[in-house]
Amino acid sequence: MEKKVKIAILGYGHIGKKHADMVFQNQDCELLALIDPKFTTAEMERQNPVPCFHSLQDFLNSPLTADVVAVCTPNGLHFEQAKTLIEDGIDVIIEKPVALSSEEAEELEKLAHQKKVHIFPVMQNRFSPPALWLKDLIESEILGNLFMVQIACFWNRNEHYYAKGSWRGTKNMDGGTLYTQFSHYLDIMFWLFGDITNIKSKFADFNHSHLTEFEDSGIITFDFASGGMGSFTFSTSVWNENLESSLTIIAENGSVKVGGQYMNHVEKCIIKDYTAPELPATNGANDYGSFKGSAQNHQHLYRNIIDFLRHGKEIQTTTDDSVKVLKMIENIYSSN
């Protein structure tokens, strides 16, 4: 019987708890430790028998040895914490974004290569049934030449989400809407269609100027380096609840639209001499109480990581792709 992969969770907020659940549910994993500076003595006792630590250094100084640490802390902390873990020879899962600059992400990638450890970026939407179907559709060239792609992400993020004193909404810890909310969908776009050029952007802050240090809405137009043109429209100023995350493709041999709140539903498939398959059901959204995030696909990410570590199977979310998506985000912001 193979040994379980020992995983520690760094950061035990909303997303850290999601990662802990994934580890608990995976019979090939063991939840080794939880690390969060906000743990109270009572909380640490409640988590028993899982050891709890107030800091990453406390954990590294302990006799426990992790195979992997999942970094689930605020965005602005990812780089330094991941760097510390990599230097210690520990594989890391890093929630999106891997870092708040492509230079930092490249530094992590280079260091991981030197230390012979692995970085597993969290881009779990690649595992959703509609996304996998779209990937197969594009790679099979059934659609022919690509003409246009339109992506629309319209979400709600209110004062409960951007609570006073929170890291959310700050430039140095959050980064901006394209890093925190919509990098998943920029990643899907990059994964399917490749890099973009001739970028033109317009941003606005409609109803978050008292809550954040950056835009809440934007319209981005561009050309794909591989051919065709596209647009990416986003907002977190939608009233009351998330409205949609959709992707529409217009191509030589047909058109496709994947919609729903989280690109979780095939709404239209009109392709010459092609019948769309029945896809497996898509998981519901991550529900964090006062807000909802992307669809629940972390279990597929963990399965992929375990299969890679044990059997050398191809990892589906690479650091190289994460660097390229970060560069895309930087180019979008600089084009404004």
UniProtKB/TrEMBL annotation:
Presence of keyword NADP: no
Name of this protein: Scyllo-inositol 2-dehydrogenase (NADP(+))
Residues of the Gfo/Idh/MocA-like oxidoreductase N-terminal domain: 5-119
Top-level enzyme category: oxidoreductase
The keyword Oxidoreductase is annotated on this UniProt entry: yes
GO function terms (MF aspect): nucleotide binding; scyllo-inositol dehydrogenase (NADP+) activity
Gene designation per UniProt: iolW_1
Pfam annotation, one family: GFO_IDH_MocA_C3
Keywords carried by this UniProt record: Oxidoreductase
EC number, as in UniProt: 1.1.1.371
Highest taxon listed in the record's lineage: Bacteria
Organism: Chryseobacterium salivictor
Domain called GFO/IDH/MocA-like oxidoreductase: residue spans: 134-256
